[in-house]
Amino acid sequence: TQDTRTTLRTPIVAVLGHVDHGKTSLLDKIRGSAVSEGEAGAITQHIGATDIPLETISTMAGELVDPDDFDLPGLLFIDTPGHHSFSTLRARGGALADIAVLVVDVNDGFQPQTEEAIDILRRTGTPFVVAANKADTTPGWNPQEGEPIQRSLAAQSDRAESMLNENLYEIIGQLSDVGFSADLYWRVQDFQKNIGVVPVSAMTAEGIPDLLTVLMGLSQRFMREEMAIDVHGPGEGTVLEVKDERGFGATVDAVIYDGVLRNGDTVVIGGQNEPIVTEVRALLRPRPLAEIRTEKKFEKVAEVTAAAGVKIAAPDLDDAMAGAPIRVVRDRPVEDVVAEVKAEL
Ligand code: GTP
Ligand code: MG
């Protein structure tokens, strides 16, 4: 499997859902960070990207995952805001995604931005699983830190278990109302036909082993069938944010979703007025498990291979536009690439 690990692209997993349903907290639990606590009013206002290596996934998933079963390098998670005013960012996150996690608070069930997220996933044809979050808030819950959900359920009183089940079946019914056949994930045979619902807690990490396992299984199948792409071609990506970085001036936080981006490459980036043609001066990567939005210590690298979150330093990026395409020119005429970027704006 060593060979395919270098040619299979890291799948991009978008995390979508209603405000406060626990998207950032779930990612915090997976990466061992506290991004949510540092956010103003605990509201996410940007798209983030975090690379989770296969080793971390298999450690967290424990007995549920055998790393030898997978030949993906890991997962690139895209965090999105749930607040209603950020619909453009949700759509952008959804458009980048290969697969998605729809986070639903078990107590609140479907809310307006849950439905909006479902519309995005339907429109883009993105396979997804539902993380039924905050299972630990079920009255009488007996927390089993980090355990797979069925082991945790076995430790609950009949009353707590049936209260949780009631909420879970409510969500399954709501999914069915919007046209998706769904069931508790351990009853699902084909995750592309039926939506798996995974009870989780971002507080106690219960069910996170299950969620990671389902995501690995779904992306492995999906990537093998549809995305065994050439990761050596000219890089393609999307601007997440334009930010001033000390010592570099205006930089671009980006997700590269295809090919390779190298230091020194000529790139075309969508701008406020017209496409910017510039040369990459530095590629700065957050450490593995670090959120690009909040990372302070970047590592300079010579190249990045899709999929990856990366900060690009280059001249003339002040006018770069969030959401705009990024294209490496490589062997093509630069006018062709400029035209391609223009067509996408
Ligand atoms: P937006 O990004 O603004 O859409 O919110 P979000 O979905 O990222 O929610 P966030 O992770 O910021 O969590 C919102 C609140 O819910 C925080 O106070 C979290 O501590 C709390 N929370 C999230 N997940 C859980 C959980 O599983 N259990 C409990 N008890 N609280 C949770
Ligand atoms: Mg958030």
Automatic annotation (TrEMBL):
Residues 8-224 form the Tr-type G domain. The keyword Zinc does not apply. GO terms for cellular component: cytoplasm. GO terms for molecular function: GTP binding; GTPase activity; translation initiation factor activity. GTP binds at residues 17-24, 79-83. Keywords: GTP-binding, Initiation factor, Nucleotide-binding, Protein biosynthesis. Function in general translation initiation by promoting the binding of the formylmethionine-tRNA to ribosomes. Seems to function along with eIF-2. Belongs to the TRAFAC class translation factor GTPase superfamily. Classic translation factor GTPase family. IF-2 subfamily. This is Probable translation initiation factor IF-2. The lineage of its organism: Archaea, Methanobacteriati, Methanobacteriota, Stenosarchaea group, Halobacteria. The gene is infB.
